[in-house]
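Table S2 (text version). Query chain:
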Amino acid sequence: MKTQPYASLEPRLQRAGRDLEAQLESLFERCPDLWGFAVQDRDNELFVSDVGITPRLSAEQYGDIYEDITKTLAALLDERPEVCELLRARTFARVLH
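Corresponding structure-token output:
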């Protein structure tokens, strides 16, 4: 059964949450070696940390994945600034079925 993690939020955040889920699903599909990452908040600025990649990749490949993560999140934040509330202090991981 799939849970509704954003069901208790106000409607604008529910929509933003669905958009976030769709973008993250696409990101993990594009980056099969990516297992997860965290989004931290420092001085009201978000940054990506704790990127988990398996198997170990070259620095260039790691950089490509990191860039894909940051571009995906930046584009979503540009389109839906309210997503910031849903990203702050969160860890996102690949879902295995």
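Notes on Table S2: The first helix runs from residue 11 to 30. Residues 11-93 form one domain.
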